[in-house]
Amino acid sequence: MRAPLGDFSDASPAADRLDLLTPPVAKAIAAGWGGTPAESVVFVDTDPGIADTAAFVEHHGPGLLDASANCVVVAGKRGGDTTLAACVVLSRTRVDVNGAVRKHLGTRKASFAPMDVAVGETGMEYGGITPIGLPAAWPLLVDPAVADTEWVLIGSGRRRGKLIVPGKALAALPGAVLLEGLGV
């Protein structure tokens, strides 16, 4: 199979590579969501040593930067309550944590969640967190630019491998909300 973007030597339907995904990601891909069939999600096997966006793009080509998205876990706090949420923005932007995210969550303070919390709550590896398979109760904030991108390269739940999905499929994930101004 040829990946819809990039030049990857090992690409296949993600449904055929569930063994390389974390359990929550594998379960979500197998089930499909919002009319997105499992066959439309592509897994590309990649070196875990270059999972971070800058290293990945340097190795696989700068053209991937415009089609890559990052998923980060944030913690919004108000009083003694903490709300965890995930944010998906194109890799060439950053998440507006203290503006758009804080306002959307209705919290007094918002920040990136500590690594141990992000990993523990998602069941995914740090540096590979993906919006697919996140806890159902979490808000999933997606920048509209991500949804408007034909094919998006995202994490696979592990540092090894990436997923390529239609951008509109990310907006159809459970709990997803398109949030203007999320990526700045």
From TrEMBL:
Coiled-coil stretches: none
Name of the molecule in the record: YbaK/prolyl-tRNA synthetase associated region
Molecular function terms from GO: aminoacyl-tRNA deacylase activity
Domain YbaK/aminoacyl-tRNA synthetase-associated: 64-171
InterPro entries assigned: YbaK/aa-tRNA-synt-asso_dom_sf, YbaK/aa-tRNA-synth-assoc-dom
Pfam families: tRNA_edit
Gene3D superfamilies: YbaK/aminoacyl-tRNA synthetase-associated domain (3.90.960.10)
